[in-house]
Structures are given as structure tokens and as C-alpha cells.
Design brief:
The protein has 355 residues and is an alpha/beta fold. The chain contains 13 helices and 14 strands. Bound molecules: 5-S-methyl-1-O-phosphono-5-thio-D-ribulose.
Length: 355
């Protein structure tokens, strides 16, 4: 199964997702700036993969700056964590993973640079392995919801490229398919950067899962035809009340699902929950460059100089969400209580690197 983040021969590589589906190329990342740029420009993307990449990026930064004492190594690490946390604002996994790296350093103030690097690398590897295990569990928990003949609509990309292992929302379809349940994935193309068209369809085709690509604005029509039995998306951050930030267009999909009595689910590991944020109103929404809308993939698609609004994420209110599929089971409303019951420590862990 494809790995978005690779640690090989003691070096960090990622699959450059901006080149897919035309080319599946690994690129090395050997500076903190390179890691920051790769996250910012979506060469590596998807909430869990961003966190995993940044965690390994902290190791890269320490090695790059080559501090010559334990005290300097602590300072380098702390600066690197702060710097990498500025790459993107919405996915809480970035701050959660960097928070873990920071705590390892703080717990080992007397380690020399080489020993600290070893401890940090072990933590980054542990984060990756834990996220992958969560993905498999999410897939297994969610697969119980699918039946032969089901149409599953999804938005953006939430498969192996976004996480490692099976992914989150897509894991549900992938694991159901592996169990012999016959499902069809309907992949929203996901304007403006086409993660659904470029990545989700590619992953489904690699796995042999039947997939149909549609423009985002065809989703309600498809539901009206009775072809969609369930909607499942991932999340970049889930507030304490269950409000969920995910790729722009997710909210529209949830509204369309509600209008057609299609259950709308979110699938995410607990690393994506932020109990420090009471509701979706507190989740920062990234706004990206106008050129993504006016010159997507090269050709001009709007007049020069037009005013553009390009939020990368939106908030789906908890009331539109039938359930949240996690590694520990499917949460049902009211989410405040359900989240607290399964992961009461989430707020403390997300606060580590500040967000
Ligand atoms: O801007 P992106 O491509 O990083 O946005 C990704 C998403 O919105 C995903 O749905 C989310 O991160 C969940 S990934 C398992």
C-alpha cells in the first residue's frame, strides 16, 4: 500500500502528490524549509499525513542545524516545531504531532544532539505507526455500515495518500471491498485542487474498488437519482461538540445528503479531535491563493484581476452528522458526551504546540 511519507536509508522522502495521477515520484526533504514548503504547497496533504510529515520534519531540522550541545539542540527543536506549525492552520494533526515531538524533547533536556535525534525519530515513527493502526480500525468499524450494492459518496482525498495504511473515510470502502462487500465509490472531483479526481479515483483504481468521478455540483443530482446510500468524508479538525472542518464543499455535500435522507458520516482518528475548541466557530479556516481558482493547473479560467474567495475548508455542523467513525467505534450524537467518554484527554494532547 502506498506510503505518503517514507523514512528510508535514514532520510525523509514524500510522494509529491501535486504530480499525481500523471507521475508517482518520491522527493527527498532534507531541510526544515523543504518540509514546510511541501506541506504548504500540498505536496504532502491530508490531516494525518501532514502531522506525520511535520514530525519527521522536526528530526530533519535538528540534523540540518547540527547543534553542538544539548542546550542548543533543545532550542533548535523548539524553533523547528514553532516554524513547522505555521505551514497550514486548519488540520489539528499538525499541531498534535508537533506537540508530541516537543514533549519528547522537553522530557529529555540533557540528551546530546545525536541521542535527542534518535528519541525524536522514534517518536515520529511511533506517530506514523499509530496513525496507520487507527486507519485500519476506522476502516473495520465503518465497514459494518456498508452493504452489497451501496453507493458511497466522498469528498476530497482520505485514502492511503492522506494518511498511510487505509486512510479514514476511504478506508471504510477499502475495507468493505476487501471483505467482499460490493460497493461503488462516488468521488467528488473537489474543486479547486481536484484531490478527488486526481487522488481518490487513482487510489480506488489501484485497489480495484469500483469508482465513478463526478463534478462536485453533480452530487445532489446523483442523490436525487437514488444512487447514493451513504456519504462519508474525512476531517481536518473536529470541535468538542462534533462540528467538523473538512475540505471546502463538505458542508454542501452534508446539506445535500440531509435533503435526500442520505446518512452523512465523518471518519477520523482521535488525533483530529480538538477539545480545546468548543464549536466549529473556533476552527481557523485556511484561505489559499486566488490563482488556484483562476488558473487551476495552468490555463486561465477567469478574467485577470477578478476578486476571488478561496477558502480551503468549511465547517459541517454536528447536527448534519449521523455518526463519527473513529478507531474506537462509531460516535453518535450528542457528540460532546460521546467524545468525552471515549477520549477525555484529547484537549490536553492537542494543546502541545499551540494552534
Ligand atoms: O487540503 P488538503 O488536501 O490537505 O485537505 C484534505 C482534506 O480535507 C481531507 O478530507 C482531510 O484532511 C482528511 S484526510 C484523512
Amino acid at each position: 500500500m502506498i506510503e505518503p511519507v517514507i523514512w528510508r536509508d535514514n532520510q525523509l522522502f514524500i510522494i509529491d502528490q501535486t504530480l499525481l495521477p500523471g507521475e508517482c515520484r518520491e522527493i527527498p526533504l532534507d531541510t526544515a524549509e523543504g518540509v514546510w514548503e511541501a506541506i504548504r504547497s500540498l505536496r504532502v496533504r491530508g490531516a494525518p499525513a501532514i502531522g506525520v510529515c511535520a514530525a519527521h520534519g522536526a528530526v530533519v531540522a535538528l540534523r540540518e542545524k547540527a547543534p553542538d550541545s544539548a542546550e542548543r539542540a533543545q532550542r533548535v527543536l523548539s524553533n523547528a516545531v514553532e516554524y513547522l506549525a505555521t505551514a497550514r492552520p486548519t488540520a489539528v494533526n499538525l499541531f498534535w504531532a508537533l506537540g508530541r515531538m516537543k514533549r519528547v524533547a522537553e522530557a529529555n533536556p540533557s540528551l546530546g544532539p545525536a541521542e535527542l535525534e534518535g528519541a525524536l525519530l522514534a517518536e515520529a515513527r511511533a506517530i506514523y505507526e499509530e496513525e496507520k493502526a487507527c486507519c485500519k480500525a476506522i476502516g473495520d468499524n465503518g465497514a459494518e455500515l456498508l452493504h452489497d450494492g451501496d453507493g458511497v459518496i466522498t469528498h476530497c482525498n482520505t485514502g492511503p495518500l492522506a494518511t498511510g495504511a487505509y486512510g479514514t473515510a476511504l478506508a471504510v470502502a477499502l475495507r468493505a471491498h476487501e471483505r467482499g462487500v460490493q460497493v461503488r465509490v462516488y468521488a467528488d472531483e473537489t474543486r479547486p485542487l481536484l484531490q478527488g479526481a486526481r487522488l481518490t479515483t487513482w487510489e480506488c483504481m489501484q485497489a480495484g474498488v469500483p469508482v465513478t468521478l463526478l463534478c462536485d455540483n453533480a452530487a445532489a443530482h446523483l442523490m436525487g437519482q437514488g444512487k447514493v446510500h451513504i456519504a462519508i468524508t474525512g476531517a481536518d479538525r473536529i470541535a468538542a461538540n462534533g462540528d467538523t472542518a473538512n475540505k471546502i464543499g463538505t458542508y454542501s455535500l452534508a446539506l445535500a445528503a440531509a435533503a435526500h435522507n442520505v446518512p452523512f458520516y465523518v471518519a477520523a482518528p482521535f488525533s483530529t479531535f480538538d477539545l480545546a475548541v468548543p464549536t466549529g466557530d473556533g476552527i481557523p479556516i485556511e484561505e489559499r491563493d486566488a490563482s488556484e481558482v483562476t488558473h487551476g493547473f495552468g490555463a486561465p479560467t477567469a478574467p485577470d484581476g477578478v476578486d476571488v474567495y478561496n477558502p480551503a475548508f468549511d465547517i459541517t455542523p454536528a447536527r448534519l452528522i449521523a455518526g463519527i467513525i473513529t478507531e474506537r467505534g462509531i460516535l453518535r450524537p450528542p457528540y460532546g458526551e460521546a467524545i468525552q467518554a471515549l477520549h477525555p484527554g484529547a484537549a490536553a494532547s492537542a494543546a502541545g504546540a499551540g494552534s
